[in-house]
Amino acid sequence: MTSAYILSQIANGVILGSMYALVAIGFTMIYSIVRLINFAHGDIFTIGAFTTLACIALAKLPFPVAIVVVVAAGALTGMVIERIAFRPMRGAPQVTGFIASLAVAIFLENLAVMTISAQPRTFLVPDYLNGLVDLGLMSVRMIDLMIVLLAIVLTIALVLFVRFTKVGVAMRATAENYDVARLMGININRMIMLAFAIGSGLAAVSGLMWGSKYGQISPFMGLLPGLKAFVAAVIGGVGSIPGAVLGGYLLGLSEVLFVALLPPEYSGYRNAFVFGALIIVLLVMPNGLLGRNTEARA
Amino acid sequence: MSAVLPLVRVAVIAVLGWLLLLAATSGLDPYTVSIIGFVGTNIILAVSLNITNGFVGLFSLGHPAFMTLGGYLTAILVMAPARKAVMLKSLPDVLVAQQWPFFPALLVGGLFAAAAATLVGFPVLRLRGHYLAVATLGLIFIVQSFAVNMSGLTRGALGLSGLPALTSVSWVYLFAVVTVYVSWRLKHSSLGRTMLAIRENELAAACLGIRVARTRVMSFALGAFFAGVAGGLWVHLVTLISPHSFTFLLAFQLVVMVVLGGTGSITGAVLVAVVLTVATEALRPAEEAAGLFGASQMTIAVVVVLVLIFRPAGLFGSAEPNLFAWLHRGARASLPTSNP
Fold this sequence. Notes:
Shape of chain A: globular
Oligomer: heterodimer
Shape of chain B: globular
Helix content of chain A: over 70%
Distance between the termini of chain A: 44 Å
Number of strands of chain B: 2
Strand order of the largest sheet of chain A: 1-4
Largest sheet of chain A: 2 strands, antiparallel
Structural class of chain B: mainly alpha
Strand content of chain B: under 5%
Largest interface: A-B, 46 and 42 residues
Strand content of chain A: under 5%
Order of helices and strands of chain A: HHHHEEEHHHHEHHH
Radius of gyration of chain B: 20 Å
């Protein structure tokens, strides 16, 4: 096991972590405002990947433009889902929203199967993104570098937005106390919709990254990364954006290193490792690494 | 309580029902018979999930995991020793030598699932709400990856194929009746009342001296037992088990049955299980003919969202409406219900 091998595996972990982090941010934002674990989040990720493919292969848009379109498409889907499925049942027990989000997920997956078939598709990125970049210790593909940089830029932008803008403060107030925020004249519906829009936009970008990195997409691709991003959000502490990012990178790195460093016969237990980690984290630190104590975890 | 039927009467009715079922299915083609088998296993699954999710209010998605455990063990116990020796290299010799009849194998499969549920239950059931849901969902993936990777015991992703088609309508019927009966007696017993009390208010229940943790694990294990049996029945109906036989999608469908029927309502779970299974099978040819794969799942998803919006308590809430009241109207007051 050479140091170059370990370095490149760490790079892979960071890339995977970037994708998890972006999806986990959405989970956390939506959860902190409406206390809903949105199962359909993984499918927004899928939609992002397919929108990218459509932009590049059909509409022949340049890659940077495609990114913007993908964010918009993801945000729009998120808002539509919120309006149609989740808003009418606001205030219902939490499990109700969870089941509804499962239903939305099944709906979106089957819609994808029906319209674009269940066959996996090859995902091609422009050639210049496949070029190698020399980083001194190792060389990585352009796309890998782009994924990590894009994830960092988006995360920083989001944190600044939430912390310093007026709308960001309003969002945090809504997450803090829904009813009091409403008394202060904050438009709750708009805040919730915004949380869905931002979270879904980020998930869609993550789907774009996944497609560019692994080169293949299918209607069911979002299920497992979506669930693992949820695990990441829980590890970081649900409700905390820095926690989601930290959890995403931790999970991405440890998952890749679990596969890379252990003998190959264990690599098949990758999913068992991730979900086992979830259960252990929930039991040992129910509030995650950076989460705050919310009296009853439910 | 008048709702609890005496065992003898239930047995007589059950035997009569069995004879009727045998008469009705004797001339049917194998395809229809297998659909009846699916309806029955889904009844077992929905009613047993209702014990965990409906009575105690634990939102578990773990049923497919327990079905996988029960299914594999039943299949291994029933399989001929000669085949096992060839197919399953690292199976302990004790197990290789065994070839059990179907019934005890099913029971042991169920007990195995229940034991696993007890083991997992003590830590995991401390979680609440959707944390529990995701942890139990994780259980599906954990069991799946063990089934894929322990190829000496399970033949890995290939699965065990060519299993004997032992599951007859009678077996399914027997276990469906037992599941419904046990679940019914449970609901109207003091244990069932404590379960419902935990669902309504855990703190208050604990204050009244109910041992919450133990009751939760008990309901989880009981649900898992029937899930394990249903897994055994299912795999001997389709004569195949693979790590991907019972997935997250199945968990969703089962939860849908419980939610649409009304969490806690046995009648509701049975009715929706029957309707949903028959509808899915009936729609399949239409779906294939029209080339609209996934249309039936989409319809179900839309119905679920609509029900959650407009009738969040499901069809019957926690009640058990007396569907045969018109038969003996006035003979008996309608059943007492526990509608919250």
